[in-house]
Every structure is written in structure tokens, then in C-alpha cells.
Write a structure and sequence with these properties.
Layout: H1 3-9, E1 12-16, E2 25-30, E3 33-38, H2 44-59, H3 68-80
Parallel strand pairs: 1-3
Antiparallel strand pairs: 2-3
Helix pairs in contact: 2-3
């Protein structure tokens, strides 16, 4: 299964959107599907890390279920976990 197929199967849509220069990306639910928006103004490595960050929010079910600080701390912990290094 390709990543594109995985996203389609799980109702995850990825778009590029020109946010202000401070916002790297976000995720939300729209019409029953997940939407991950990435700011293309940042470099490719930053976009990749932002995508990983937002995808973890989707996979962990964070949307609307916890406070912002709580969710951000959980995502940061997962991204810093050595088991995922080089993933």
C-alpha cells in the first residue's frame, strides 16, 4: 500500500496553504475527513517535520480531545523517542 493509498483509506487529505510566516501547519477535521495543511513558505525539511507532527495528532486522536499544551507535549515526546529516529 502506498502512502497516498493509506491517506485515501483513512480520509486524510494533505494540502499546501500559505499561512502567515509563523504558522508551519495545522490539522483539523472537515466534512468527516482529516485535513493537514502545510505552509510551503518553509523549507522541505521543515515541511516534512511539520507533516509528521500533524499526522501524529491525527493518529493519536488529538483533534478536539485534549488541551493544546497536552497534545503538543505528547507529539513532541513521540517525535523525540529514539525508537522513531530515522523513520
Amino acid at each position: 500500500m502506498t502512502f497516498k493509498d493509506y491517506c485515501a483509506l483513512n480520509n486524510i487529505n494533505v494540502i499546501y496553504f500559505n499561512f502567515s510566516s509563523k504558522i508551519r501547519g495545522l490539522c483539523t477535521v472537515k466534512d468527516g475527513a482529516y485535513l493537514i495543511a502545510i505552509n510551503p513558505c518553509f523549507g522541505s525539511e521543515s515541511q516534512r517535520r511539520t507533516f509528521e507532527h500533524e499526522l501524529i495528532h491525527v493518529l493519536e486522536g488529538h483533534l478536539g480531545s485534549c488541551t493544546s499544551g497536552e497534545c503538543e507535549a505528547a507529539v513532541t515526546a513521540l517525535l523525540n523517542d529514539e525508537r522513531f529516529a530515522g523513520f
